[in-house]
Design brief:
Maltoporin, Chain A, mainly beta, 686 residues, 28-stranded antiparallel β-sheet, 4 helices, disordered N terminus, 42 strands, 66% strand, globular
């Protein structure tokens, strides 16, 4: 378009006042703004246009330390920590983010060093949306594999309708993963007077896992005054055949006759919950928030383990676990904006009652009572180019089982300091001291047989342990390039990790407070956009150093890795590629755990109301493998889990989003609590 002349720009209206008529102007702002305690990401119009959901948009943003599987959409972070998803400050499920229309998203706030308010989350991704409008929307998606010997289904549908001051919404998601694994083990048992070597050669064994999640939500609000929200959630976990199932031939060093092994676990969990929320806005930039959540978890777990020699069963183990858990979570938050910063304070209490019945060789009823409480205060401020956030929380943990009672108190301070010498350079240091409570699945005196030589045992004497987490982050961005470097160090004192002990011919796998655990990590993300928003490439080399010090062992491990993420679009066409090499690994205690191997390539076509993509998973391999190790001196194990139907898998992905009617402004919840821990100790072989 030709530039307008001076006469075209300047004219006088009927009042004689000079007016300036300018052509449309596009202002290009920085896409990532460093806020000290978080990164504020402003999606471009092209990123919003070429995304089908909130999950798709997150993948295109290529956030440091965040991995989005472009096929399944699952979100993970470096170090295998919890990624917490939120919309306008309220914690939500994956399904709610999947149903979020990109055109409703204003920005995304990425907390990669979340404070005490966010619990144990390693990262928090908060979607800030535009004001809701009158009318409604229907959205959905489907992801299906086209493999003849593997089933991979991920279907979702959601709807929302607004009328007056009310809004009602609902969503349902169904996932199924069905195929086969081959599990093999190379295992040594070190007795006081001998060593036994057991070698398993596996056969393909079915796994079948299903997940149904649903949500029904009603809200009533008057803008600027109050918000009431009632939400009913229901989750069904149905696993007819677990990932740990196996069929194999066992060869032992003390016999020439092989043993046939059959190991099968069936599990089913029902999780209904009711969430009530109220928010009251007060004068002088103040806000009160109250949240009450009641949850009921009904669990069942059945396992059959058999060993046959020459067709005759010489070992048969059976366990049947039925569990019920009732929990109540109450939380209150006060917020106040001041001239120089923001003050936040909160109280939270969780009370649970667990009744698990274990049947097998022995029958045992386990009654657990648990309570967790904390109070916290946080102040966030800024002085010139310096920013800071200080947080102090006081927590209480209570646990009881029969005559065993435990009560612990602790302080959890954290401090974050940031410095911006210039607009495109940012430094940040963060330190956090935490108290960590034992899992209720470990806090019992139950024993579950794994096989003829091994037993898994709980430990009601487990104690809280302290951890210190520090990280230093430096970010430089200019033009089409950015560099994000992170160095972090985590130290745990007396962490709860697995131990193997020998008792009367049996190897006991239990849990104890060990000496220490250390994790030193460094990674740097190079990101470049060589052609506007049409091509975005991020490359992240990293290194992890693990030092695990037990009461009777010391293990160290170093992992080097490389992550590459390419996102491209032109007109209505999409292209995505992702790889993690080698597969992500993690060490804890005496376990070396291997994460998913990921090479993914997808191509698609996008329209305003729908999008379709097709791709291939792990195209560069014939066999998918996961090789784990246990370095116990008494029972060292190497496992090889592999499958041919998880490579070269073709996947088709479809999304749609339809809006109708007028729209109106609404307010979203600021918090949401969830309880999903059934507290069952299982005897499956890992």
């Amino acid at each position: 378009m030709a530039s307008p002349s001076y006469a075209q720009l300047i004219a006088k209206d009927s009042t004689g006042i000079m007016a300036i008529a300018l052509d449309e102007v596009t202002i290009q702002a920085r896409s990532v703004i460093e806020k000290g305690d978080r990164k504020v990401i402003l999606p471009t119009q092209n990123q919003l246009k070429m995304s089908s959901s909130g999950i798709d948009l997150l993948g295109k943003l290529q956030l440091p330390r965040i991995t989005v599987d472009i096929m399944s959409g699952e979100i993970t972070t470096s170090g295998n920590g919890e990624v917490q998803l939120r919309i306008n400050g309220v914690q939500v499920t994956y399904t709610e983010i999947s149903s979020l229309s990109p055109e409703d998203i204003l920005r995304i706030e990425y907390h990669d060093t979340p404070g005490a308010r966010y619990g144990n989350a390693a990262a928090v991704i908060d979607y800030i949306t535009k004001n809701k409008k009158m009318g409604g929307s229907i959205s959905g998606g489907a992801i299906h594999s086209l493999s003849s010997n593997r089933t991979s289904i991920d279907d979702m549908i959601s709807g929302r309708y607004n009328y007056g001051k009310s809004e009602i919404s609902a969503n349902v998601r169904y996932i199924q993963r069905k195929g086969d694994w081959t599990r093999e083990y190379d295992e040594h048992f070190i007795f006081p007077d001998k060593e036994l070597h057991r070698l398993e050669t596996g056969e393909p064994t079915l796994f079948n896992k299903k997940l149904l999640t649903s949500n029904l939500n009603y809200s009533l609000q008057e803008k600027g005054k109050y918000l009431f929200n009632a939400q009913f959630r229901y989750t069904l976990q149905d696993n007819p055949a677990g990932y740990e199932d196996r069929k194999s031939k066992l060869y032992t060093s003390d016999s020439d006759i092989p043993v046939s092994i059959y190991d099968h676990t069936k599990e089913r969990n029902h999780l209904p919950s009711l969430d009530l929320y109220y928010q009251q806005n007060l004068k002088n930039d103040q806000r009160l928030i109250f949240n009450l959540v009641g949850t009921y978890i009904k669990s069942s777990n059945t396992r059959i383990y058999q060993e046959k020699q020459e067709g005759i069963a010489n070992t048969e183990l059976y366990s049947d676990i039925a569990g019920k858990k009732y929990s109540l979570i109450a939380e209150g938050i006060y917020e106040k904006k001041l001239e120089q910063g923001t003050l936040t304070g909160g109280l939270r209490h969780m009370q649970s009652y667990t009744d698990n019945r274990y049947e097998g060789e022995d029958v045992m009823d386990v009654l657990l009572k648990q309570a967790e409480s904390y109070a916290y205060a946080e102040y966030k401020g800024k002085i010139q180019n310096w920013g800071y956030m200080a947080n102090l929380s006081f927590n209480r943990f209570y646990y009881s089982q029969r005559d065993n009672h435990s009560e612990r108190y602790g302080l959890q301070p954290s401090l974050l300091v940031s410095y911006n010498p210039v607009d495109n350079l940012h430094f940040r240091y963060h330190i956090n001291l935490k108290n960590n409570a034992p899992s209720i699945a470990y806090l019992n005196d139950v024993e579950q047989r794994i096989d003829i030589l091994q037993t898994r045992r709980g430990n009601p004497d487990l104690k809280l342990f302290r951890s210190t987490i520090q990280d230093f982050n430096a970010v430089f961005s200019t033009g089409i390039c950015s560099i994000d470097a992170l160095v972090s160090y985590a130290y745990e004192k007396n962490p709860i990790m697995e131990s193997v002990i020998y008792e009367e011919g049996m190897f006991i796998r239990t849990y104890e407070n060990q000496k220490s655990f250390q994790h030193l990590a460094a990674e740097i993300t190079f990101k470049i956009k060589p052609w506007k928003d049409h091509i975005s490439l991020s490359v992240t080399p990293g290194i992890n150093r693990y030092i695990s010090t037990g009461n009777n062992y010391l293990h160290t491990y170093t992992l080097k890795e490389l992550r590459i993420n390419l996102d491209a679009s032109y007109k209505n066409w999409l292209l995505s590629f992702m790889t993690i090499t080698p597969p992500n690994r993690y060490v804890y205690g005496e376990q070396l755990l291997k994460g998913d191997l990921m090479h993914t390539l997808m191509i698609g076509y996008k329209q305003p109301a729908w999008a379709i993509m097709a791709g291939i998973h792990n195209p560069f391999m014939k066999t998918y493998r996961s090789e784990n190790e246990n370095w116990s001196a008494l029972n060292p194990v190497k496992s090889d889990i592999h499958s041919t139907n998880m490579s070269n898998t073709i996947v088709v992905k479809l999304n749609f989003n339809l809006n109708f009617g007028r729209q109106y402004k609404s307010t979203n919840k600021r918090i949401q609590n969830m309880d999903t821990d059934s507290g069952i100790l299982q005897g499956t072989k890992k």
